[in-house]
Amino acid sequence: MECTYQVIVVGIGPGSPDYLLPIASRTITTARVLVGSKRALDTFASAEQLTKIIDRDISGVLDFIEQQVHCQDVVVMVSGDPGFYSMLAALRRRFVAEKLRVIPGISSVQLAFARLAEVWQDAALISMHGRKAADEVLSYRPGYKLGLLTDTQHTPANIAGILLELGWPETACVWLCTNLSYDDEEIVATTLAKAKLTPGFEHSVMVVKA
Ligand SMILES: C[S@@+](CC[C@H](N)C(=O)[O-])C[C@H]1O[C@@H](n2cnc3c(N)ncnc32)[C@H](O)[C@@H]1O
């Protein structure tokens, strides 16, 4: 008999349950098998659920999901929206599309632009979380706007240095948005020249506008 169980990939938004869709919340609460980061499992998992932490061993996590989905649905929580730099890409390499059901979430980038009352339809959305970006996408052009995901290597200071080398003016506007949706959310408005000298804000959304 054909197996009808699915891998349900749920976007949990930027972090606070206030930004979790009701359908995502229901799916997580009723899951028998729940996969997610330690932080997400600490927040959402209950004692009776079988859980698996997403760690560096992604292929081990995929193996676990593949074993479990033979006999029951598996719910995988990812931060923000699954379609924007999440484990969905790895899941698509392991499973056919029909095996996956995706529940969208609010991306950290969406929330950052919302906080600034800025539209993002004209912005280039780029991740430098665990990856580089090509000079062509980062290079300055008049009226260009960037929404960037940062990490401990590609910090806002590091990225500001790269952008200055690629022709962006020192006076370009920069917003560093961290812990979005949480009680300790912080948004700092600055310039590119000052951002180059600003430590911290490792896991942030960095918005840059010429
Ligand atoms: C692996 S990416 C996940 C992106 C996610 N799929 C999304 O749509 O937001 C992780 C990066 O997202 C950003 N991020 C996620 N949650 C955030 C939050 N609450 N506040 C600020 N940035 C956040 C940070 O740049 C972090 O390094």
Number of domains: 2
Separate helix tally: 8
- What top-tier CATH class of the largest domain fits best? Alpha Beta
Which regions have little confidence, pLDDT < 50, spanning 5+ residues? Answer: none
The biggest sheet amounts to: 5 strands, parallel
Strand order of the largest sheet: 3-2-4-1-5
Shape: elongated
- Helix-strand makeup class: alpha/beta
What is the averaged pLDDT score?
96
Name the ligand types.
Answer: S-adenosylmethionine
Strand content: 15-25%
Order of helices and strands: EHEHEHEHEHEHEHEEHE
Helix content, binned percent: 25-40%
Query: What name does the CATH topology of the largest domain carry?
Result: Methyltransferase, Cobalt-precorrin-4 Transmethylase, Domain 2
Give the second-level CATH assignment, the architecture of the largest domain.
2-Layer Sandwich
The N- to C-terminal Cα distance equals 59 Å
Q: Radius of gyration, rounded?
A: 19 Å
Number of DSSP strand runs? 10
Q: CATH superfamily name of the largest domain?
A: Tetrapyrrole methylase, C-terminal domain
Q: How would you characterize the overall build of this protein?
A:
The chain has 210 residues and is an alpha/beta fold. The protein folds into 2 domains: 100 residues, Tetrapyrrole methylase, N-terminal domain (Cobalt-precorrin-4 Transmethylase, domain 1); 101 residues, Tetrapyrrole methylase, C-terminal domain (Methyltransferase, Cobalt-precorrin-4 Transmethylase, Domain 2, 2-Layer Sandwich), CATH 3.30.950. 28% of the residues lie in helices and 23% in strands. The strands form 2 sheets. A 5-stranded parallel β-sheet has the order 3-2-4-1-5, sandwiched between helices. The protein starts with 6 loop residues before the first strand and ends with a strand. The mean pLDDT is 96. The structure holds S-adenosylmethionine (SAM).
